[in-house]
Amino acid sequence: PGDSAAVFQAPMYQATATSQTPAAMTLASDLRFENIAVNNIDHIYGSGYDITLGTGVTNNKDFYLYGSGQNAITEEIGAITVYSGRFARLVGYVRSTATPLDVNWKKAVITVGGTANVGTIIAGCASGAIKNGDVAITVEGGTIGTLVGGNQGFNKGAAPYTGKTVISISGGNVTNVFGAGTGRNYSVPTYCGEMEIEVTGGKVSNI
Predict the structure, then answer these.
(1) 190 by DSSP, 3-state: which?
(2) How far is it, in rounded angstroms, from Cα 84 to Cα 24?
(3) Which of 14, 22, 117, 124 has the most neighbouring CB atoms within 10 Å?
(4) Band of pLDDT at residue 180, cut at 50, 70 and 90
């Protein structure tokens, strides 16, 4: 990261939220965790700043990472890069949107490697519709349960994704790759646009 980045890097150092209730973070600069134990932090909204978890990161609450905001798109989209730690969800753009969100071809980038353990990777958003997305997802290593090239969807809300997604897998262990989306509680996401999936290494159980 640049000179303005917030950097937490120290062996045996522990960063803890002030409450036992997991805290959310909204970034105002690039963030990098390395060789650190992080307690009671779950959702981290990049808000256009890069989120990097290097080697040696442990966490007692699974992380949820987003390249942009909770509901609104930011001027830039922060890149998400993880090489250690546990993650419930990595999302290219936002957590949710009540109305279709036009991201205007802003590039979202997600990279997974090392020993990172990820439940779900979502190109677009976890709930709602994304228009004009442009997402690159790279898996170099780690363990991923589900990788989605579009939106996840939630309940009965529409969750279409339009745009482009490139998925490149060269290492690691991926259980499922779903192009359009997975859906949660009846939602059926749709995908319209360009989808490229390249597997050159690692193990992928189902595409």
Answers:
(1) coil
(2) 19
(3) 124
(4) confident
